[in-house]
Amino acid sequence: MGRDLSSFADLLCRSAEQLATDVICSIMTLDGDGRLHLLAGPSLPDSYRTLLHGIPCGPRAGSCGTAAFHGREVVVTDIESDPLWEVARGLALPFGLRACWSSPITGDNGRVLATFAFYYRTSHRGPGEMERRIVETCVDLCAIAIRHHDAQTRVERLAFIDALTGLPNRAAFEEFAERALMSEAHPVAIHYIDVDEFKLINDTLGHRAGDLLLNEIGRRLKVVVSDDVFLARLGGDEFVLYLRGNDPATQARLARTVLEALIPPVEIMEHSFVVTASIGIALGRSQDGYLEELSRNADIALYRAKAEGRNTYRLFSDDMAGETQERQKLKADLRWAIDHDELHLVYQPIIDMQTRSLSSFEALLRWTHPERGPIGPDRFIPLAEESGLIGKIGLWVLRRAARDALAWPAEIALAVNISPLQLKQPGFVLEVTRALRDSGLPPTRLVLEMTETALFDNDALTRQALTELKALGATIALDDFGTGYSSLSLIRDRRFRQLKIDKSFVDGIGSCRDSEAIVRGTINIARQMGFRIVAEGIEYASQLAWLEANGCDEAQGYLISRPMPEKDIAGFILAQTHLSTRLNAAGRT
């Protein structure tokens, strides 16, 4: 029980003993298992106080145990002969306790919270009228104090306990870790644990399934970590371990134990899937007292584990800190590039398989850094999304590409990539509409490509944006198809008109039967659903011929052309006849 409640109970007992004559007062609390624990009994012999700890209540469990069991007062005037004390009298009599009167202390719902008792050193002694008034007052005061304490405890529990998993939360972790780091010097370690692909699982199966999964992960972590490890849930799909010791080999073993505990398939809502996690570990010493730095290092190591394939762990090292600083510098340079026109577009043609004519150009963003040279989009696009720049960049791409496309023949469409984050931005569709209006490009010539991850975040803004873009007349394409978590379910979304088969599957044509089977099956299903199918990353004539034979509609890749600057497009369009001749010959080989 809390110190304040114990102090109050002790003072109440002493006050009652001063008012009553020759009594020894005690207050005992009742736990959820039906056992009594001494809260206060300042005049009881120390040895007897020890014996009272954890005694069970019951129909013949002495005065206090019986009063708690039945919820009514119990007056025993002779402990030596009363059957209610048959089991417990050997505890009381050696200390000269001959009689006992106990009253239950109840809560608002009538549940017994505790007992208030007067012991007497003479037999055949019961409560007098004055003693009854004293006890009634003390019972009422105790009930108020205990209810207040219980309410305060519940509030504190809500403040420091994660309601979903029952683990300590971020606030509890920070309070514990800061205290521990400021205590006596000892080596420490922090493990940051992040569930891989949790967002896809959560958004695909629903938040209820996600909550059940997190609860199961919390349960598994509690099973494998020892009692001297502080385990908490920081929020979302992030957990943390804090423990003494900074031996790298020991921490690596613990991390592997955690990863192995997550391997068995999880069965949730009729779905079975394997969960993995990434772990970042930071080592230090407690006398440094630097929780913020230690946490930051663990987070950096976690990012490295994610970047290097997930389902693994990494220990923080100084070179990781350098990489983080490098990322921050690159983000700053990206802001400068946006404001000083360092970004530019190139265009890669897409052809119709049947006619060998140009059907569209895909706008691809490039960045040439003045000191570092070309920086690939696979590197700077994630930085743009992390730093909130993707909306500004995406709008610039759309406006510039729409302006360029207006000079092309009317039958050639423009394909532009859209980030999932852009779909969430209020007013995104209005920005698309304005860009088309300002450029003069008809919406029917615009193809908006987005990866399937945009669909997993099934929020209202995303759904509404997709619906409005389709109503606008733009074609919505599902890009990089087959590389995500649950692709086939997305084909049922009638807002999509086009499906792009990812290069990773095209690469396997002619060498991998599994890839061929996946591509063939995807084409067959998509065609039946009314999709137009585009294969990207075609590099060899044999791939083109196989895709054409299996019903693919459009093709894109180095075999047709590498991406080109806008100034070269007019010449490329003029050379279409030569292109068609070359590709027809390639298709026959």
Helix content: 40-55%
- Beta percentage is 15-25%
Q: Which of globular, elongated, flat, extended, rod-shaped describes the shape?
A: elongated
Largest sheet: 8 strands, mixed, barrel
Average pLDDT confidence is: 87
**Low-confidence spans: pLDDT under 50, at least 5 residues?**
none
Q: What would you report as the Rg, rounded to the nearest angstrom?
A: 36 Å
The order of strands across the largest sheet is 14-15-17-18-19-20-21-22
| Gap between N and C termini | 85 Å
Count the strands?
23
Structural class: alpha/beta
Supply the number of helical segments: 22
Report on the structure:
- The longest helix is centred in the first third of the chain and has 32 residues.
- The chain has 22 helices and 23 strands.
- It is an alpha/beta fold.
- It has an 8-stranded mixed beta barrel, surrounded by 4 helices. Strands 3-2-1-6-5-4 form a 6-stranded antiparallel beta sheet. The chain has a 5-stranded mixed beta sheet with strand order 8-9-7-12-13, with helices on both faces.
- The mean pLDDT is 87.
- Helices cover 46% and strands 22% of the residues.
- The radius of gyration is 36 Å and the shape is elongated.
- Helix 7 crosses helix 8, helix 8 packs across helix 9 and helix 20 packs across helix 22.
- Strand 21, helix 20 and strand 22 form a beta-alpha-beta unit.
